[in-house]
Amino acid sequence: YAKESGRGRYAFFDTRIDERNRRLVRIKQGLRQAEANGELSLVYQPEVDPNTGEVRMYEALMRWNSAELGSVSPAEFIAVAEETDMIVDLTRWLIGEVARDSHQEPLKHSKISINLSPRQFRSDSWQDRVRDAIQDGALDPTRLCIEVTESALVEDFALANEQLREIKQLGIEVAIDDFGTGYSSLAYLKRLPIDYLKIDRSFVADIHLDPDDRTIVETVIVMAHALGLKVVAEGAETEQQVAFLREQGCDLIQGYFYARPLTLAALVENMENS
Ligand code: C2E
Ligand code: MG
Ligand code: MG
Ligand code: MG
Known about the structure:
Elements (H helix, E strand, L loop, with lengths): L1 H33 L5 E9 L6 E12 L3 E3 L1 H10 L2 H16 L9 E6 L8 H11 L8 E6 H6 L1 H13 L3 E7 L6 H6 L4 E4 L1 H4 L6 H16 L3 E4 L5 H9 L4 E2 L10 H10 L1
Parallel strand pairs: 2-4, 4-5, 5-6, 6-7, 7-8, 8-9
Antiparallel strand pairs: 1-2, 2-3
Helix pairs in contact: 2-3, 3-4
The chain binds ligand C2E and magnesium ion (3 copies).
The site of one magnesium ion (MG) has 4 residues, from loops.
């Protein structure tokens, strides 16, 4: 009996793994055609100065609406793209879109940040694309910010440091994304040419409930400011969270409280209604 149920369980897991693999294969195949099929788009989420309510930055976030799979979350497809070289093409596409959108309302009054995956940090083709866009006059480097996760920095500190220094020389700003989740040593903060720390959403979510989270957020803000860095808090959804972050001197706040990520058309519509 035990044996049989054991086999049953095994078969059950086997099916689940099969399903998972089939989905990954379909994502991989679909993603190859996504750009050509016009299935990719960008949404932009504001980062707001809590003292004035002004939008200082918009984070560009990729969306994939697949004809076959429907809308696939970036958490899922970016991971697949990273395992292959597809992330290089996706980022190439993204930089072209951002350069174009940066001249449109309301983006033209703010900075724009883009996300770079750890994996592509090992090649500098993304840098070439950025340089081309700057040389063409399509992109103003002083209005661009690049977000890199801590894990990208930890994986290859020397290379990341070198690449960041090169892009900083172009006038581009640098943010560490999801700060607090990536096991980076504090020494990195001193040695890397960074402008912003983005405190991960997981520390912001419970600040009204959990005194430890409040302490972490307060301390990160004090430390960042002492090091000459600005702080962005991710994922603020409530007025209470925003009030706490503002009191602590957080420079920018991003989250559903202010706005969800929106298409350019929706941003314009919001402006007209306000
Ligand atoms: P991220 O860079 O940390 O982006 C912030 C994520 O938090 C976004 O999820 C955003 O929609 C979500 N978010 C913002 N405010 C709130 C809030 O108040 N509540 C909640 N629950 N969520 C909030 P999204 O768009 O699903 O992107 C997930 C991740 O996928 C991003 O995390 C980023 O790591 C990656 N990603 C998205 N677009 C790109 C891209 O173009 N290139 C690369 N390399 N990665 C990307
Ligand atoms: Mg980001
Ligand atoms: Mg983030
Ligand atoms: Mg995050």
